[in-house]
Amino acid sequence: MKSALILFSGFCALxxxxxxxxxxxxxxxxxxxxxxxEGRREIRIRPGGDPARGWPCxxxxxxxxxxxxxxxxxxxxxxERPARNNGQDTGKPLSPSWAxxxxxxxxxxxxxxxxxELGKRATxxxxxxxxxxxxxxxxxxGPPFTSRETDSLIDATSRLRPEIVxxxxxxxxxxxxxxxxxxxxxxGSEDRPVVWVQARQHAWESGASWVARxxxxxxxxEEKEAVRLREIAEIHVIPIMDVDRVATGDGGxxxxxRDHNRDWTDSPxxxxxxxxQKKLLAFAGENRLAVFLDLHNPGANDRxxxxxxxxxxxxxxxxxxxxxxxxxxxxxxxxxxLSLEPAPRVTGAGYHPLWRQISGQWVNEHGNPFTMAAxxxxxxxxxxxxxxxxLSVGAKLGRAxxxxxxxx
Length: 408
Known about the structure:
This protein has nine helices and 20 strands. By secondary structure, it is α+β, with helices and mostly antiparallel strands. It folds into two domains: 9-140, Immunoglobulin-like, CATH 2.60.40.3120; 147-406, Zn peptidases (Aminopeptidase, 3-Layer(aba) Sandwich). It is globular.
C-alpha cells in the first residue's frame, strides 16, 4: 500500500503542459505548420510565402503554450514549392540552406532579439531548441524588421534631432502601403553631396534594415566623424524598399514579374523603384549624387560581408577612382567580427541575365561622372549576425562614408 501511494503521489506531481499554439497573423508572419506533437513538445514548420512573390525562405512565428523554463523544439524543413530563378519558374524547390540559419532569432517581446542555441542539422531539417519565458515566444529566420520598426526609427530620430531629420514618403506600393524614408541634412544643404542608402529590395533579407538603422543612429550620434559627415552631406535612408512582401512574409527575391533589384528599367513595375529613380536623376542633374548604397544579405555560406559592384571598365575614370577609394576606407572600417572581404564581386553579364536592370548598374549609367555605387551584402549565418551585430556594421559603414566624403 505504501509503494502504491508513493506511485500515485508521483503521478499527481507530473507537470501539466499547456497546448502549443503557432500563429502568423501579424505583420511579417509566415510559415506552414506541418504538425504539433504535444507529447514531445515539438513543432514542425516550413517557410511560408508564395513563390510567385519571391523565394520561400523567410519564416516568422509566434508560439504560445511553452511554460517558463520548459524545453520545446522547433523543427524546420525547406519549402517543397517550386521556386523561381532568373525570372523563370525552375520547377524545383529552393535549396533549404537559404531558410536554415545555424541559430534562429528569438524574442520574448517581439522587439528585442537574440539567437537561439545552435540548431541540430540533419539532411532535410534543422531542430532549434526553445526555452519558454513569461509569455509567447517569437521565432524567426533572422531579427525581423517591418514597417513598424521603420516608423519607430523615424519617430525616435525625428524627436532626437528635429532640426536635421525629416521624414518623407517615397511612394505608395502597388498594394497601397507607404514606403517611408528619412532625410538627414542641416541648413544650407542644397549644394552638398547626396548619399542615398536603401535596404530590403529583397524582402526576406531582414539584416539589411538593421544595418540601415545602425547607420542612421551612428550618423546622429556624437562621434567626431558622424558630426563631420552630417555637416558636409545630405543623407537619405530608406529602411525597407519592398514593403509589400515584408508585410506579407514573402521572400521578394525573384518575384513575378521581377523583383525590385531587377526592376531598374525605363519603365519600372514598382512605384517605389520609379520614385527612387526620379529622385536620383534629380540629384544627378544637380551634380550632387555622390554615393548610392544598396543593402542586402547574401547566401548561407558567405561568412564575411562583401560588396557587389558593376564592371569597372564601364565606369568613368573618376567614378572608378572614387569607388576604389571608398572600398579601401570600407575595408579599414568594417573590421572583426564581421570583417569585410577585401575584393568586391562584380555583377556583370555572368552574374544574372538582367544585370543591367540591377540598381547599382542603373546608377552607374545615370549618375554623375564621380558617383560611387555599390551593394553591401552583410552575412546572416554567423554567430555575430544578430540585431546588435548588424547595427555595428551600420555604424562602421557610416565611418567609412565619413572618411570617403571628407577625403574628396
